[in-house]
Amino acid sequence: MAQEQFLFFCVNVGSEKLLKEEIKTFYPELSLSYSRKGFITYKNKGVHYKISTISQLQVAFATRVGICFGKSAPSSLHEGLDIALKQYSVSKDDCLLHSFSINTDAEFDASKYFDRAVNEYSSMGKNVIDLICLGEKEVWIGLHTVGKGTTRYPNSQVEVDSPLHVPSVGYKKLSETFKLFAIKTNNYQSWLDFGCAPGGSSMFLLEQGCKVWGIDPADVDEALLENRLFNHIKTPMQDLSHETLPDEQIHWIHADLNLNPKQGIKEVLRLAKKYNSTLSGIIFTVQVVNPRTIQEIENFEDQFYDWGFSNIQSVQVPSHKKEYGLIAKRK
Q: Which residues of 10-24 are buried (b: 16+ CB within 10 A; e: fewer)?
């Protein structure tokens, strides 16, 4: 009799319902098994994932996905881990160890327990053992492989440096996106930042040395207006035309809008057409206004594919709430 397969999904606390809706919509072969804040498991009733294919399971509202081997008390962890890995012909010594806690002050000291380094940056193709602490003497064991689009940090948790004065959470959302998904920028790039007010995302881009056109009818932080690399366009984007946008090369677009995502994507792509020859990518924040928004994840991605973007990911970073980021790159 074939071995049953379970999968684990780590998720931002508060986004559990969003992840469940996404799984129900796109992965009906998965049956809910266990759920608590920040951590959900499913039984796989479909074709089982191999260790070589688990990285293909990319879920927008999951911060980490992998094969789940169940929970263990720390005292029996070695034995349970060896038995679990044997199913997939994986050696513990050939894997990295990622150890992290979710929604608890309890911690599992994996470095001491295994007498080796933990939470190292994981490279492409590497197998990673996930040791997930959910409470005192409760550690769940998982396994994932780093593939294209897999974040390299434990449970996608990254530390980002920010100045003492930050106008909005937009700074943190964009800085986490850059770090987790290796967005490269430099001081010759120019950005359009739609929905920039009060200025957190624009401030982050300016700190990278970019030239920024912030587009928002609302006022922005005074610190931005004092920066010679920042230009504020106070026209609502629905009223903008190609003629009113800057006649310069634009390399990237960021958009975080208080609009229905269908309308927002339509407007951004309409205006982006002016920069078709120079544009490298778009980072678009999708506001989840209702469950139907989640059902549109693939349709939203298809709109960017149709405009010539070949590398597209829908992701949620730690600072996202009822929203996710759509990252569309030319290559």
A: bbbeebbebbbbbbe
- Separation of alpha carbons 64 and 68, rounded Å: 11
Helix residue ranges, H only, 107-199:
110-114, 170-180
Backbone phi, psi, residue 175, to 5°:
-65, -40
Q: Residues 133, 102: contact at Cβ < 8 Å?
A: yes
Domains and CATH numbers, the chain: 6-156 (3.30.2130), 170-329 (3.40.50.150)
b/e burial code for range 246-279 (CB count within 10 A of at least 16 → b): eeeebbbbbbbbebebbebbebbbebbebbeeeb
- 101 beta partners: 133
For the segment 254-306, what is each residue's pLDDT rounded down to a tens digit?
Answer: 999 999 999 999 999 999 999 999 999 999 999 999 999 999 999 999 999 99
Q: Look at the block and give the residue holding tokens 């994986």.
A: 90
**C-alpha span between 199 and 254 (Å, rounded):** 12
DSSP state of 168: S
Cα–Cα distance for residue pair 129/81, rounded to 1 Å: 9
pLDDT of 254-264, one tens digit each? 999 999 999 99
Q: How many CA atoms lie within 13 A of 197 on its CB side?
A: 13
Q: Based on C-alpha coordinates, what's the Rg of the chain?
A: 21
Task: Specify whether the CB–CB gap between 87 and 3 falls below 8 A.
Answer: yes
Please state, in angstroms and as integers, the Cα–Cα distance from residue 326 to each residue in 21, 58, 257, 266, following that order: 18, 13, 13, 14
In contact, 304 and 285? CB cutoff 8 Å: no
Sign for the CA dihedral angle at 58, 61, 65, 68 comes to negative
Entry field: residues in the chain:
331
Indicate the angle between helix axes 170-180 and 200-207, nearest 10 degrees. 50
Within a 10 A sphere around the Cβ of 82, how many other Cβ atoms? 11
Strand partners, 194: 215, 255
